[in-house]
Every structure is written in C-alpha cells, then in structure tokens.
Amino acid sequence: MTWSLRYQMLLPLVVFVAMLAFTITFDQAALQVKQESNQAIQVYIDVSRRLSTVTPGQSLSILNEYQREYPDWNFVVIDHRQLKTSTIPLSARKQEILANLPAAPKETAGHDAFLLAAQGNWYYVSPIIVPGWNSGSYLVCLEPYQAIASTITGVYRRSSWMAFSISGILICVAAIYSNRLSHRVFRIQKQVQHIAAGNLSQMADERGHDEISQLAKSVNSMAADLESMKQLVEQTERSRLHAQLAGGIAHELRNGIHTARLSLEMFQEVCDPAVITSQSMLINAQEQLSITETLVRRLLTLGKPQKRTLIPEPLNLVLDNVVETMQPISHHTEVHFRSEIDPQLDWIARDSESMQAAFLNLCMNAVEAAGRHGEVHLTAQPASNGIEILISDTGSGPAAEISETLFEPFTTTKPEGIGLGLGLVRQAVTEAGGSVGWNRIDNRTVFHVWLPTQAEDNLMSDITLSKSNHDNRK
C-alpha cells in the first residue's frame, strides 16, 4: 500500500494544529476565568467599601442595591456569630455554618471559597472583613455557582470555536499547498515512467526554486543525456550496418573503374594503336585502379580494429592528382572543368588516399550534376585559420527532400546510387580536423571544405615523411 506524500506532509501538520487549537482554547478559557474572578473580587471590594460607612445593622439597603445590580448574588451580614442581615432565607444549620466562618480580607476574598446549597441553588461562599467593623462582624458573599459554570462553559465554547476555525483554515491551506506539491512530484513520476517507456521528451515542470524544481531539472537533464546516448547508439548501429553492407564497396569500386575505363577510352581515341608515344593516360588509369584497390580493402576491413599505414602528401599534390584525373573525364562528358589552386598551400594531407578520394568524389558528383556543356570550378586558397577548397557546379543542386541529410549515409536520389559517397567525404574531412558543407550561390551548387591550420612541428614532421615516401616510390 502506497502512502501518499501529500498525507505524509498533512498528518503531522494536522496533529500540530490540533494540539495548538487545544492549547489556545485552554489558554483563552483560563484567561476569561481569571477575568471573571477578578470581576468578582472587585465586587467584594466595592461592597465592603460601601458597608464600611454604616453599621452591620444598617447594611440591608446597601445590600439590596447590590443585589438589584447583581440579581443572582446574595449577601449575609454576621455580627458576633449572629446573622444580622440576609438577602436570602437560610436554615438554622446554614446560619450556624456562616456564623462560624473565619473572615478574610477583601483582597484575598474568594481564594478559599466553598460551595453551599440554599433555596435550590449552589453558591460560592466568601466571608469578607469589612473595614471599620469590629472583629466579630463580617460580610458573607454568596456568588452563584451556575452563573460561574455557565460563564466558564461559554468561554470554553467560544475559545474552541475560534481555535478550531483557525485550525480548519490552516489545514485547508496546508491541504491545498500539499496537493500542489504532490501533483508536481506526480508529474515528475509520470516523466520518469515516460523515460522508462522510451519517450525522452522533456515534460517535467522546472518552475520554482525548491528541491522539487531541482529534481525536475535533474530528470530533464537525464532525459536529454539519454536522448544523446540514444542517438549515439543509433549512429553506432548505423555504422555497424555500414560495415556489413557490400554496397559501399560497389560505390567506390564503380567510381574507380569508371574513371579508369574513361581514361583508357580516351587513350584509345587520341593514340595510334600501332604506335604509342604517351603513357600518361595509361598511368592515370593504373593509379585509379590502385586507389580503388586500397578503398576496397579498407571497406572490407571496416569496423575491425587495425593499424593502417597513412601516406602523407602535400595538399597541392593531392589536388593536382584530382585535376589530372578529372580533365579527361570532363572532356569526355563535355563538361567545362577549370581549377584555381594556390601553389603556396602549406598543408599536408596525412591520409592522402582518403583525401584524394574525397575530392575526387565531390568533383565526380559535380560533373554529373552539371551535365553536358555545364561548368565545374575547383578552387583552393588560404582562408581564416586554415585552407578553403570550393567545388562548384552549374547543376540544379540536391533535391529538397535530402538537402538536410545530404552527408548522412544512404542518402541519395540516384536510382543506382547507394548514398555512401558524401558520407565518406565527411569522414575523411572530419578525421583531418576540418568541416564540409554546401549551399546555393548565384544558381550554382557550392561544396566547401575547410581544413585547419597545422601546427609547425606536425607540419615539418609530415613534410619529412612525405619526402621519404616520394623517395621510396622512386
């Protein structure tokens, strides 16, 4: 059985308020009784002061006057153990009792009072010394017990109603406030249940500056972290799936073979089959086949931990190889291809094979998008804190439905495409510390690659290694 947090907060408050109500009730009642007692003592003092001006035998008129003012009160005058005057009929036994009382000063009257029944009523009996009378004479005041009891009962009743009214209001306010807190906790509980069910949308109310709002913020932060982890898991799962798909191999293999085939076709068109005087196109085809072989081998081992030998090359050389490869392709497809590469680019591609494949992929896509008689422009120049490479074409640009996910794997609108080319481009650029993106400028589609400035020590090391690779090739 679940005990609601609301009741856990409300029960101690109810107990506390109830105790407070009883305390207030008894304190108020005691205060009222004290006030009533002081009023009675004041009556004793007033009567004794008035009687001090007359003899015991002359006191009846004054006593009748006070009895008219206090109808329920009665007074008896005792003179030398004899009843001298009385405002109420008394039996001989009761007269004897009153005649033998020890009189008290008016200031302490009522402190040692006792009850006496007379004429069907009960009275508090208070003997009082009257100033000016002899020692054998005193006044006996009979204060009605019923009046005192009703006064005390009324005081307790009024105090109780007031205390319980205040307590009821406090309990209602506490119930409303505890209900509000309980609902806030309930909403957080529902949010946690949604998270457990896989719904990671942030729903907890963070308003306020108390512990519950901090808990809500923590739950929302946990939901955001879980959402990030979920996306990471999905991305990891996609990467694992990429490693299992043979389509990636087909994509890169097709580009390389297509390039080699076009180069060989151009070689056949421009050369005399009988006498071959130039080997550049044949060499180009062989290099593309070599790159294709490397990419196929890399895709076959994708997702497996391994050490791969990187071949660093100057970026100028990488781009020159791309331009050299694209020239016969653009000529064959009747696309106007031009390049502007700053010869002073001070940047070394540590993984020259991946970088060359990436730029070649962008250029091949641009030639295909531009179409016959279209234009493709490759520029490379220093930029802010790095180097910027732009590849633009006069094509219509990517379709609207894939414009936001163009670099995601398996994003393509080509009937024969798989959608891994631009994903591998982003991977190669990202591994080099750069970034890649695209936009439309003046009716041209522009892919821009930014590569960061390299540290001087790393740059010198890469240059040395690049020279060593050239020497080994020679």
Automatic annotation (TrEMBL):
Compartments, record wording: Cell membrane
GO molecular function: ATP binding; phosphorelay sensor kinase activity
Uppermost EC category: transferase
UniProt keyword Hydrolase, yes or no: no
Main location: membrane
Record keywords: ATP-binding, Cell membrane, Kinase, Membrane, Nucleotide-binding, Phosphoprotein, Transferase, Transmembrane, Transmembrane helix
Pfam families per UniProt: HAMP, HATPase_c
Domain Histidine kinase: 248-455
Membrane topology recorded in Swiss-Prot or TrEMBL: Multi-pass membrane protein
PANTHER family: SENSOR PROTEIN CREC (PTHR44936), SENSOR PROTEIN RSTB (PTHR44936:SF10)
Organism domain of life: Bacteria
Name the UniProt record assigns to this protein: histidine kinase
Biological source species: Gimesia chilikensis
Catalytic activity, EC: 2.7.13.3
InterPro entries: 2C_sensor_his_kinase, HAMP_dom, HATPase_C_sf, HATPase_dom, His_kinase_dom, HisK_dim/P_dom, HisK_dim/P_sf, Sig_transdc_His_kin-like_C
Reaction(s) catalysed by this chain's protein: ATP + protein L-histidine = ADP + protein N-phospho-L-histidine
Residue ranges of domain HAMP in the record: 179-231
Residues passing through the membrane, by range: 160-177
